[in-house]
């Protein structure tokens, strides 16, 4: 009895510790975003003042609203392109038998193993040659390249576990491959699509290196770069209040998306296929 109580208490204590360790940095960022002046440098774990001055300053100065819209456009377009290409590619890799299919799938996975810095120079030359430098399409192009290996691999694994009888019945009814993908497989793949799409969105939303390298004007930058380039009146003054406010603004949409699609995310991560 005592050991059962001790194990239960230890388990919940560990869960509480993990939650505090994970949530506390964001909580303290929210706390700091409402403080101004010297109060920012005081250690407070409970709100002592609530001022919207930092949030008003972020939206009223500079190009932060434009940068926010840039991030929404880039991340949304990357998700649409990546999922469209990945669905068709996963159908070919999971359902169509051809020589070298396994090698091709491993090659696609191997592409994701390269760090961004390793391909930065070559990708920059490619972006410049295509005259995409300092445009949002340069970010969409590069993000899609790095997002596809993961989305193709996950969707291929998910589609491979779908019952072959469903596809055979559709073929007997005269369905084309596109009809099979869009009308038969797509409704069954929503958990996997939501999971991969959300992870692709988060990756594109938070990416910094390519956004810093491929854009040079404030109007074309995304929010991670805009936050990173925030500076004070002098080189020794760092506007921690506006930086924290901008960080909270950028993080909240991701939290909302995860809360909205949490059931689909769990299903996509745990489901191995359709059983019947």
> What is the class of the largest domain in the CATH system?
Mainly Alpha
SS field, number of helical segments: 13
Give the overall silhouette.
globular
CATH fold descriptor of the largest domain? MetI-like fold
Quote the beta fraction: under 5%
Give the second-level CATH assignment, the architecture of the largest domain: Orthogonal Bundle
Helix content range: over 70%
Compute the CA-based radius of gyration: 23 Å
Mean pLDDT: 83
Sketch the major β-sheet.
none
Description:
The structure is a single chain. The chain is mainly alpha-helical and 276 residues long. The protein has 2 domains: 51 residues, no CATH class; 208 residues, Orthogonal Bundle (MetI-like fold), CATH 1.10.3720. Helix content is 73%, strand content 0%. The protein has 13 helices and no strands. Helix 3 runs parallel beside helix 6, helix 3 crosses helix 9 and helix 6 runs antiparallel to helix 9. The longest helix has 32 residues. It starts with a helix and ends in a 6-residue tail after the last helix. The C terminus is likely disordered.
Write the layout of secondary structure elements.
Blueprint (H helix, E strand, L loop, with lengths): L1 H32 L19 H8 L3 H32 L5 H11 L4 H14 L6 H25 L3 H9 L4 H12 L1 H17 L2 H6 L8 H6 L11 H21 L1 H9 L6
Summary keywords:
MetI-like fold; 73% helix; disordered C terminus; mainly alpha; globular; 276 residues; 13 helices; 2 domains
């Amino acid at each position: 009895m005592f050991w059962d109580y001790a194990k239960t208490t230890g388990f919940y204590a560990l869960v509480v510790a993990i939650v505090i360790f994970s949530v506390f940095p964001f909580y303290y960022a929210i706390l700091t975003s409402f403080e101004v002046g010297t109060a920012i440098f005081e250690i407070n774990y409970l709100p002592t003042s609530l001022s919207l001055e930092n949030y008003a300053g972020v939206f009223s100065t500079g190009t932060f609203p434009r940068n926010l819209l840039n991030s929404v456009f880039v991340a949304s377009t990357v998700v649409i392109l990546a999922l469209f290409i990945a669905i068709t590619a996963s159908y070919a890799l999971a359902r169509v038998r051809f020589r070298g299919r396994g090698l091709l799938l491993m090659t696609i996975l191997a592409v994701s193993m390269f760090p961004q810095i390793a391909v930065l120079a070559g990708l920059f030359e490619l972006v410049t040659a295509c005259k995409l430098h300092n445009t949002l399409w340069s970010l969409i192009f590069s993000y899609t390249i790095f997002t596809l290996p993961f989305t193709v691999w996950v969707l291929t694994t998910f589609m491979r576990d779908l019952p072959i009888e469903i596809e055979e019945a559709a073929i007997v009814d005269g369905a084309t491959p596109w009809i099979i993908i869009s009308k038969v497989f797509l409704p069954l793949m929503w958990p996997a699509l939501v999971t991969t799409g959300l992870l692709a969105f988060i990756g594109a939303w938070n990416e910094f290196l390519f956004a810093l390298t491929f854009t040079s004007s404030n109007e074309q930058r995304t929010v991670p770069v805009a936050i990173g380039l925030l500076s004070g009146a002098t080189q020794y003054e760092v506007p921690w209040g506006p930086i924290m406010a901008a960080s909270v603004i950028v993080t909240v949409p991701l939290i909302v998306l995860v809360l909205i699609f949490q059931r689909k995310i769990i299903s996509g991560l745990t489901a191995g296929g359709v059983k019947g």
